[in-house]
Each structure stands twice: as structure tokens, then as C-alpha cells.
Structure of Tapasin-related protein:
Amino acid sequence: MGTEEKWCLLLCLVLSGVAADPAERQSRAVDVVLDCFLVEEGRQLGGFASSRNMVKALLVLRQVPVLDDSSLEGLTDFQGGTLAEDKPPVTFEASVNLVQIPQAEALLHADCNGKEVTCEISHYFLQATENAAWFITNVQVSGGGPSVSMVMKTPRDVENGAVLHPTLNLPLSSQGMIQTAVELQVTTQTPSLNVLLGSSASLPCGFSMAPGLDLTHVEWRLHHKGNGELVYSWTRGLRQAKRKGAALQPEQLLVAGDASLALPSLTLKDEGTYICQITTSLYQAQQIIQVHVQASPKVQLSLENKTLPATLICSITGYYPLDITVTWSREEPGGAPVPVSGASFSSLRQSAAGTYSISSFLTVEPGPAGITYTCQVAHSSLEQPLGASTQILPPEQKTAFGVLLASSLFLLALLFLGLQRRQATSPRSAKTLRPSG
């Protein structure tokens, strides 16, 4: 077992303890260790990439402030010098003193919470005269967790007697690690959003940059079905909204590093892949957010014809996206629902707004005591399936009910006519006036 695996095992054992009251939590600096891959691109004459090789790497984010719930007691810092492997991974020791890592807790607890972390490090090519190298790291937590992109600066200064990495030609520390500093990070809390048609949405995008860097440009773009378009841009205080109602707050941009985009009254045209791009005076990084617009179906059950065998129509209207599941069941009095097959479907219809509608038909029999039929619809916009039910009665029950109703109406009519005739033949009552005194 490698050192990083032991470190994670220790962390998981410690985190299994009882957490403290959130109100009592304080910040504590810990090392966050991530298993990564380093992308090495071979180059042909002319500078074009000829191959893409993935090499095992390790990213150690040094002393990241996280909320301490009293379960981090005994957690030790990462020691790179204890890596004893035939082919140790390329280890980057990254300082975060210049930026904030707002999603550090999710990165720290990912393995213990059953989440997977995808981490990829690649070269960040920058035209500069400074004696340094740059890398960009993209980290993604599974299960809808946060996504973080970090631009890291690595000095090339070689001290006397310093050991260089055999392939990267960068100086190594005494512990055999490449020392870097994170100078820009762009984060989104949720890389995928499901929103209802007609509602409003906030697309989260935050950033943090090193002192000395200036925010020069923020841009939101939408890509959908091969088409790309500008949604919103901010350039040194100048705002441009290409999508009606799109907005973000410049004050939040400058003060809190919040570039979240607000979109009101969503339509199906708002669905797609959004790119939040942050540009500073030296670096550029971005985050991608998938927006899925949904519309919940409406379900109505009706009887097409009353003669047996009757046909039930289950109308499902106004839903999006297209995928939907329709099931039928029947339930006899005192029994349990039983699935029913043999339903047919109408052709698919699409409204001007882009939502879909379809009808399902089922030929039914009432049975000797009547049967309740249910049409159930499952859709991605629904937390629970939506259903509609109706009862089909046998012919004798329908006839008996009709005879009883007709008899009742006939008796009421006779009673009403008798009352009318009695009032017409009875003498009118007269009032007697008596003189006073």
C-alpha cells in the first residue's frame, strides 16, 4: 500500500467518528491529496502534437483551509519522501496561499463518501519571458459534485545541486516533488442542472485569483446541437446580454469572485452546454455546466366508447424531454394491481413550444364485479410516477343503475305534478279585517 493510500485510509477512519455541531466548526489547514494523470503530448516537426500519453501523477494541495468537525484530529501532513515504488508517480506539491479553494471539503472527503475524483494535469502554454512553466489541473467529483480548474505556476530556477525531473526538466524538492503555486481557480458547484420549463435558474461559477492579477473578461456561451452563441459578456465593467434577461452582478465579480449567471423564464432554447470562461491579465480558465430543461407531463384518462369491449384513452401532454414510460394495470375489488399488456400508441405530437404529447389506447373488459384500470406515466421531470384511474362496471350493474335512476326521476315527476294539481284546486284563504275600538 502506497503512502497516499495509507493517508486516505487514515482519513476515512478518522472521519468515521462523531461529527461536531456545525455551529462549533472552525477552519483548519490540511493537505488534500488527489490521484491524477499527467498528460504528456509528443510533438512532431512544426509543433503539432503526435501522441497523448497519460502518466500517473499525484497532486498535493498544501494546507487547504477546511471546516473542522473535530474528526480531523490526528490527521498528519503528506510526506512525499516516503513514496517507495519502482515507478513513483509525478508528484506536484501545490501551494494555495494565493487563492481560495471553496470546494475543498468535497475533495477531501470524496473517497470516504464513496465518490470518485477525476484529476487531469496538462501543460498550460503561455507566451511569457518569465523563467517558469505552467500547468492546468481539472478536477471533477462524481455524482454531481463540484468541478475545479486550477492554473499552477512552476518556477524553473535551478539551485546548485538541484535534481531535475527526468522528463519535465523541472527542479525537484528534497522530497522529490515539483513545487507549484495555484494562481487561478474556476469552480462550479454543480456541473449539471435540471430545471423546469418556465422557471428561473442560476448557473454557478466562482473564481479566485492571485494578488496582482486583474479580472479583464467574463464570458458565458451556450453550445447546443453543434451551434454556439454568446449569452452574456462582461469586459472591465461593460456588460452585454445577448439573451434577454441574462444577468450577473459586477460587484460580486470584483469582490467575491462570483460569476454565476441568472436566467429567467427558461424555454427549451435555453437547454445545452454552458461555458463560463474567466480571463485575467495573464491566465484564462473555464467551467462547463450542462443545463437540462424539463416539462412535467399532464395525464388524463377517458373512455372512447361505452359499448363493450370498451377502449380507454390515456392522454399524456406537455412533457419534455422525449423519453417517457407508460404502463397499464388493472385491479379487481379486494385484489392487488396486475400489469396489463397490449396497449397501443398514437403518433407523437409536438407543440409550438417544443413539448411533446402522445396517447395510449387500451381495450378493457369490466369483469364480473367491475375492474379499476390505471394508466401510470414515468418521466425524468417527476420524482414519482404520475397516474390516472377509472372503474369499468359490468353491463348488468350499469343497467340496474340506469333503471333505478329512471324510476327515481319518474316518481319525483309524479310527486311534483300531484302537488301542483292540489294547489290549483284548493280554495284561496282570505284575511279578515276587524275595525278598531
Remarks:
- Residues 132 and 164 are 14 Å apart (CA to CA).
